[in-house]
Design brief:
4 helices, two-stranded antiparallel ribbon, about 55% helix, single chain, alpha+beta, 4 strands, about 15% strand, two-stranded antiparallel sheet
Length: about 100
């Protein structure tokens, strides 16, 4: 059973991710909150926060594992391929800052 503190922490992390990290589609910035991907990503990266082991390689691997459905499910693309490089670096920085809190 997940405790309330963990749930609140994941929700807080998801909110920060959702407001600051976006995918780039035809030069449109779709923030992860709007794409409903922020909570999934927060749940996947939370163990790094919990273990105090944030690393760029681990973040990239998680982004590679999250599939994003396009065209009504006609195609699946790893989240990694939709994030600009700057957003990947911003995500790592965001996680490191979150860890310090």
């Amino acid at each position: 059973m997940v405790n309330e503190q963990t749930t609140q922490t994941v929700e807080s992390l998801a909110a920060e991710i959702g407001e600051n990290i976006y995918i780039d589609v035809a030069k449109w910035h779709l923030y992860l909150a709007d794409a409903h991907l922020h909570t999934v990503l927060a749940e996947k990266v939370y163990p790094m926060i919990e273990n105090e082991e944030v690393s760029e390689d681990a973040v990239i691997e998680i982004l590679r594992q999250i599939s994003v459905s396009l065209g009504g499910g006609r195609k699946e693309v790893p989240l990694l391929e939709l994030l600009p490089m700057q957003c990947q670096m911003n995500l790592v920085d965001l996680l490191e800052e979150f860890l310090k809190k």
